[in-house]
Structure formats: C-alpha cells, structure tokens
Specification:
166 residues, mainly alpha, 2 strands
Length: 166
C-alpha cells in the first residue's frame, strides 16, 4: 500500500475533529454555554441514541455519544494515530468485508445477549466491544482510504499532464 502524507493527514484531521467533538458538549455545559452545548450534540444525534445513562461523563455531563460509540471512535482514532508506526505491518491491507464482521461480532453479541436476558451488559462490556469494533474499522478503513486517496492523486496527476501536453 502506498503512503500518502496528505491522505493520512486528511483522514487524521477528520477523525480528530469528530472524536474531539463529542467532548465539546460537556465542556461547554461546564463553562455555562448550554445553548451551544445542546447545538453541538445535534451533530451526533443521527449516529447515536445519546442516552445519558449509557454515556461516559465529563464534568458531570454526558459525552455526546454513548459508551459504545465513544469507544468505537476513540479506538479508531488511536489506531489511526499509530498508523505511521504500524503501516508496514502485514495486517494493514485492504480486508474483505467478511473479515470486518469478526470485529463487529463482540459488539453484536453484547447487544443481543443483553436483549435476550442472557447477559446484562454494562459500561465496560459496551466500551470493550466498541473498542474492538473501532480498531477493526480502522484496520479495514485506513488501507482502503489510502488506496482511494493515491488513486485519486494518480488520476488528478494524469489529467494535469494531459492538459499540459495539449
């Protein structure tokens, strides 16, 4: 897989912005900016139920996403931050979608077994299963992103050369 510094930095900036953003609401609430805090939570409403009882707390306010979602995003961002050190490892290749399911299985089991009454999940199991899923998503997504980014750059460079030759 080809390394693209600009591709990596673009993905990293997006990931840090998204992950850091769910800490904004409790920080804003804590500093008395309740209206802005409520507005900042709206960005995460389409992707998370935002149940305060199922969310980590910061300054006595819940994060903008639940235990599981915050763990997915934090694990993804952590693997992405470590990517420059790990990028030459054999596991950083585009994986078939079926292999991604292995990383989602603990999260699915944690949820289904709780619904069936076999297991009572809690903050730890939701965070752990979310972290496994987030790390798996990173291992799956980063190589695909880098391949798409470098292909886009090659296409752009080829178009630029054609224009110059005309």
């Amino acid at each position: 897989m080809r390394w693209s510094r600009s591709g990596y930095l673009t993905l990293l900036a997006a990931s840090l912005l998204w992950t850091g953003g769910f800490f904004a609401a409790p920080l804003l609430h804590g500093s008395g900016h309740d209206d802005i805090a409520i507005f900042s939570r709206l960005f995460y409403a389409p992707v998370c139920h935002q149940d305060a009882a199922r969310s980590f707390m910061l300054l006595d306010w819940p994060l903008s996403v639940c235990h599981r979602c915050s763990s997915i995003y934090l694990a993804f961002t952590t693997v992405l931050l470590a990517y420059p050190l790990l990028r030459r490892r054999h596991f950083f290749v585009s994986l078939p979608l079926s292999r991604l399911a292995i990383f989602m299985l603990p999260m699915l089991l944690d949820y289904v077994l709780d619904v069936l009454g076999v297991w009572n999940n809690g903050a730890l199991s939701r965070a752990l299963s979310g972290s496994i899923a987030g790390a798996g998503l990173a291992v799956f997504t980063i190589p695909a992103w880098m391949e798409a980014w470098t292909a886009r750059r090659r296409h752009h460079d080829a178009d630029h050369r054609e224009v110059q030759n005309e």
